[in-house]
């Protein structure tokens, strides 16, 4: 598909934007502890501006600091002291060639006293996301917050931003008032849809009056809510969008929000998941509509051609590859680093920062947003790939993510690189990881690496094990050992070994599985394998000796996966003790003290893995420059592997 419409100029109010691509507001937690813009934040946005996106909307910025602060290091716009840093940020974005806007926000009940130092507030008395009592805002406080939004809009204008977005979506304060589930008020700000939308509309009118008729001003709304009843629906969202237009909004950005396990609709796994909401809103208004929701370049082009939206927002995709717009405009789609939808950016960035602030308020920041596939996030200045002063012969052993990234970066620097992989395909554990539900996008990462290594001229040797003799035959100046792991197998006395397979072999299609299955190990691999097999109609039981399943996973991934397993009738037993063996299978004692025999056609080992370090001492003895990276150093996540691969390629 030719991407033509995506790169046409467009307008929001009186602002011309060079193309129809938007980087939506996404919290990074890169600000200072007292709400100021930092050099890290400026570098992050400047890099994405240089990548070719038409409009950057700077992340949710507090209009009521610290009461409305949603994350520990959220930036603020509620006082003139913040203007200097905000101005530097706006100018950095515009120097990169993008329009710069900023999102105005109040966290409401979606925060915690450990972050704000105050009791959370909201439309009604309830419990916050962190299970704290929420105090209902008075009418006088609502009026004050309307004025705070207006003053913040004026500051954005003074700081040099090209426009302002009012955050009336997701789980933040204005959306909390709109939500029929959260808003139980009986005054002018509760009850009917008109009353629930009143706060948002008053904010839009006040901001419009404050900044004038010519200054671009728009709002973000939810098209629907998921996981609660009563919930906001499409028809209500369309009406709110009409009212927002009448109140003075120049555009509508359309998202959605989910509660509990449905929180994952905020950043969906299915490309274009929110397009229906955008399409319905567009039919109801005469101003531009911005669509969002895992939109790929091809999806965005189609959406604009079909009149579903006027602009498309790509969030996580621009974290993964800031230069996606330029690459797409040049027709180099195969060079785009794909977002794999893994939630690393939110889980280890925002969620970890919030949890850390609650559990250990005085501890330093966790560092903010990170990315599994882009090691340069928040390290844009350090992560350069300069030419090597003395090109060398480099052998990389292992074709998983660490090895492929090391080979790619080393070759970019001008080294002569040979990659040895014992299997018939590149990818390593990524191939198994791409098989379970919600994980298919990982296959795009494998394709990206295969393409890049081929284009760069890395000499890939498949079905060649990295023995000492084979490595030595290449006469390398440097060796990068990325040979991964070997599975850990539980020794259960009496278990018929003919019925035992590993989870990795199951996911790779190398092992046959019967109709009834017991999986030993309830971390990510075990539970994802269970979900994968349940989709095939297998009856699955997962057993774990620890107190909790998915103990090593983040909150969102754990919540979604446990919900998946519950819906698919997968039984997960924790705190299990092995008591012996009977003719039919292992005998266990459950957490409730029940003795139970685990009968199954197939027993699957998902009890972890150990690093493959067998050859490393000999390599260190033979060669001067040896690096051990990825799971070969310690089994961890995709992000760790790619970061270490990048750094190894830099160092060699």
Output the structural class.
alpha/beta
CATH homologous superfamily heading of the largest domain? Aldolase class I
Give the second-level CATH assignment, the architecture of the largest domain. Alpha-Beta Barrel
Number of helices: 22
Helix content: 25-40%
From the 3D structure, determine the CATH topology of the largest domain.
Answer: TIM Barrel
Strand count = 28
CATH first level of the largest domain: Alpha Beta
Oligomeric composition of the shown chains: single chain
Global geometry: globular
Radius of gyration: 26 Å
What would your notes on this structure say?
- This protein has 22 helices and 28 strands.
- Strand 4 (55-62), helix 2 (83-95) and strand 5 form a beta-alpha-beta unit.
- The chain has 652 residues and is an alpha/beta fold.
- It is 34% helix and 19% strand.
Please give the structural blueprint:
Blueprint: E1 10-12, E2 15-17, E3 21-23, H1 39-50, E4 55-62, H2 83-95, E5 99-105, H3 113-116, E6 121-122, E7 126-127, E8 133-136, H4 139-159, E9 163-168, H5 173-178, H6 193-196, H7 198-211, E10 217-226, H8 234-247, E11 252-258, H9 275-284, E12 289-291, H10 297-305, E13 311-313, H11 316-320, H12 324-329, H13 344-359, E14 393-397, H14 401-412, E15 416-421, H15 430-433, H16 442-456, E16 459-462, H17 468-473, E17 478-481, E18 485-487, E19 500-502, H18 503-507, E20 516-520, H19 524-534, E21 539-543, H20 555-567, E22 571-573, E23 577-582, E24 585-589, E25 595-597, E26 602-605, E27 609-611, H21 616-622, E28 625-628, H22 638-651
Parallel strand pairs: 3-4, 3-13, 4-5, 5-9, 6-8, 9-10, 10-11, 11-12, 12-13, 14-15, 14-17, 15-16, 17-28, 19-26, 20-21, 20-26, 21-22
Antiparallel strand pairs: 1-2, 7-8, 18-27, 23-24, 24-25
Helix pairs in contact: 1-2, 2-4, 4-7, 8-9, 14-16, 14-22, 19-20
